[in-house]
Amino acid sequence: MRLAYTILYVPDVAASLHFFERAFGLRRRFLHESGTYGELDTGSTTLAFADHALGHANFPGGHVAAHSSPQPLGFEIALATDDVPVAHAVALTAGATELAAPQRKPWGQTVSYLRCPDGMSVELYTPMG
Question: Which domains does the chain have, with CATH numbers?
Fold first, then answer.
């Protein structure tokens, strides 16, 4: 088995795709004509977004909507970059809110944490080695 893609349920798929393009420079793979599903090319995996209505159809018991949660959900999207402070600043300009400013960790990595307008949490980090 291998991780193929991650789907995030959001209130506005097109807006989430647009934000991730502006904030993180990811390339849109496609947006379905219905507007309820779209994907970004992230390399060997795919980051996908689906409308909350699809989530409700998939999970009859419901799901937690990240955008309406006062706190970040218990997971994050992690994106590698060689310059965390610059990437962090670009994301803030694009509309993210800061959860934690860029910080160098004792093991040498620089990391920061952001919350996207759709409520998703993103970690920016420098690769190890």
Answer: 5-125 (3.10.180.10)
Amino acid 77 reads I
Whole-prediction pTM value?
0.92
Which strand (E) or helix (H) includes residue 8? Answer: strand 5-10
CA nearest to 96, candidates 43, 18, 33: 18
Q: How many CA atoms lie within 13 A of 106 on its CB side?
A: 0
How confident is residue 121, by pLDDT bands cut at 50, 70 and 90?
Answer: very high
Cα 123 to Cα 31, 49, 57, 61, distances in angstroms: 24, 18, 29, 29
What pLDDT, in 10s, does the model give residues 69-88?
999 989 999 999 999 999 99
The Cβ-side half-sphere exposure at 87, using a 13 Å CA radius, reads 24
* pLDDT tens, residue by residue, 32-52: 999 999 999 998 889 999 999
* Contact (Cβ atoms closer than 8 angstroms) between residue 20 and residue 40: yes
Among residues 52, 79, 72, 74, the alpha carbon closest in space to that of 63 is found at 52
